[in-house]
Design brief:
Helix content is about 20%, strand content about 20%. It has 3 helices and 3 strands. The chain has a 3-stranded antiparallel sheet, with no helix packed on it. By secondary structure, the chain is α+β, with helices and mostly antiparallel strands.
Amino acid sequence: MSAGIDAGRARALAVEMGVAVGGTKPLPPGIRKNLARGKPIPPGIARTRLPPSYLDRLPYHPGYEWVAAGADLLLVSVAGAVIAEVLQDVFR
C-alpha cells in the first residue's frame, strides 16, 4: 500500500497547521528501528492522535488510521495495528 503522500509534504502540512512540529522528540534508535512496514506497532509505543483538521488533509485509506509516534507519522491498520507506512521526521 502506498501512503499517497511523502514525508516532505506531510511535514509541510504539519508546519502550515502548527501540528507539534519542533517539539516532538524522536523515538530512541532501538525502538525506532522496529517501526517498519508490515510489522505490528511495538508494545509500549505511545501513539499520539492527531488533530482532525490535519487528518482531513492527509490521504484517506479505509481501515487505516494516521498516528504520530515520536517525530514519525504512521499509517496503521485499525484491525491488528500493523504498520502500512512510516513517514520519518514529519514532526521534528
